[in-house]
Amino acid sequence: METMANKIAIEKAKSSKIHDVDFDNLSFGSVYSDHMLVCDYKNGKWNTPKVVPYQPITLDPSAKIFHYGQSIFEGMKAYKDENGKVWLFRPEENCKRLNKSAQRLAIPEIPEAYFMEGLNTLIDLESEWIPQSPGSSLYIRPFVFASGNGFHASPADEYKFIIACAPSGSYFSGKVKVLIEETYSRAANGGVGYAKAGGNYAGQFYPTKLAADKGYQQVIWTDDNTHEFIEEAGAMNVFVRINDTLMTAPTSDRILDGITRKSILDIAKDEGIKTEVRKISVHELVEAAENGSLKEMFGAGTAAVVSPISGFGYHGKDYDLPDLEESYASLLKKRITDIQYNRAEDKFGWRHEVIQ
Ligand SMILES: *Cc1c(COP(=O)(O)O)cnc(C)c1O
User: Fold this and answer.
1) At what angle do helices 259-270 and 91-104 cross, to 10 degrees?
2) Which residues form ligand 1's pocket by a CB distance below 6 Å?
3) Which interval of the chain is the signal sequence (predicted)?
4) Taking the CB of residue 129, how many other CB atoms lie within 10 A of it?
5) Are 291 and 319 in contact (CB under 8 A)?
6) In this predicted structure, what is the pLDDT of residue 278?
7) How far is the C-alpha of 215 from the C-alpha of 177, rounded, in Å?
8) Which CATH number fits domain 176-340: 1.20.1250.20, 3.90.1150.10, 3.20.10.10, 3.40.50.300?
9) CA gap 254, 50 in Å, rounded
10) Which position among 78, 169, 172, 325 has the lowest Cβ density within 10 Å, counted as fewest Cβ atoms?
């Protein structure tokens, strides 16, 4: 990684909002820390990022983000251990993925040093904002959007890269009941499903609302061509346990390459759990649910880490999953969070200390 020629300037907030925040009752991503990182792309290059007080952004009504949706983001967390040290989890993977998304949406790629040094500077400055109660963390939202103007349908000539932070409590929503989606699709071959593009989420809200109206908290996306193979659980990757084998769908144009997903696969192998990365058909799920070999299903992603599924609906019928005392979901969640919070050895080299 190239290092930065210029140091990141910090403009401090006049006063801190931290004393107004009820750290014992944090919801997810709804209060923001005092500062944010801002980096502007102008005249064909990214300028040196700077840290400024968290504040609204002013844009021209013709800014291309509003019209053509050039918008991508990442989701990550900072964790504080018992000794007050601050850790990130595989941050270079978020940087790589942001640039993979950028390429697909015709957004100029962010220099890795701007991302990594910008992140370190911001998180170090905001370290008091990292809650320490069990399961809580500082949620970090890097995002890039087209700030350049014009109704002409072409890539913008100006962009903003921002990192904002939200102290967040533990993301526990209980088990969710899911609907296997057969009408709508999240992504298509050759499309943008593998990118963390804002529009992918916009397209999910309506089908998810229809599922919610029928009593399901989440949708299981299937392949857009046949709707016969499961792909993701809402905005998380999906895992299935049949007997003692843990499986997940292979990444593709349509499936986001989740960092939690690949970490879970590595940890499961390390635990001696048999894993398979392959297409999983709905037919196979129904059969396994009927003969009792379907033991678990769960979503995997940064926010909830692991989100257990209680059952699924398909063709008007509900299939319930057993309530296991010793689930892979809880074992894998514990192992991954023990690494994230520096409670266990990190044999994979995933933990990244924030330099103070
Ligand atoms: C962000 C995201 C995931 C999870 O990725 P992580 O890197 O594990 O947080 C999975 N699927 C979709 C569609 C996503 O947007």
Assistant:
1) 140
2) 75, 196, 232, 235-237, 256, 258-261, 301-302
3) none
4) 23
5) no
6) 98
7) 8
8) 3.20.10.10
9) 35
10) 325
Q: How far is the CA of 272 from the centre of ligand 1 (A)?
A: 25
User: CA-CA distance, 254 to 78, in Å (whole number)?
Assistant: 28
- Contact of 116 with 2, CB cutoff 8 Å: no
Per-residue pLDDT averaged across 117-122, rounded?
Answer: 98
Contact between residue 157 and residue 65 where contact means Cβ atoms under 8 Å apart = no
Domain spanning 9-168, CATH class: alpha beta
pLDDT tens, 73-104?
A: 999 999 999 999 999 999 999 999 999 999 99
Query: In angstroms, rounded to a whole number, what is the distance separating the alpha carbons of residues 125 and 34?
Result: 9
Relative to the CA of 200, which ligand 1 atom is closest? 13
Take atom 11 of ligand 1 and give the residue whose Cα is closest: 236
Of all protein residues, the one whose alpha carbon is nearest to atom 10 of ligand 1 is: 236
Residue nearest to atom 15 of ligand 1 (CA): 235
Strands 71-73 and 137-146: antiparallel
State the SS3 of 323-347: CCCCCHHHHHHHHHHHHHCCCCCCC
Contact 106, 126 (CB under 8 A): no
Name which of 284, 283, 219, 303 is nearest 245 in CA terms: 284
Please, what is the Cα angle at 108 between 105 and 111, to 5 degrees? Answer: 130
Mutate to test the pocket of ligand 1, among 72, 90, 181, 302 (most ligand atoms within 8 A of CB): 302
- The C-alpha atoms of residue 163 and residue 77 are separated, in whole angstroms, by 12
| Its pTM surpasses 0.90 | yes
Cβ count within 10 A of residue 132: 13
Cα 105 from Cα 296, distance rounded (Å): 36
Annotated domain spans of the chain: 9-168, 176-340
Q: 136, 168 in Cβ contact below 8 A?
A: yes
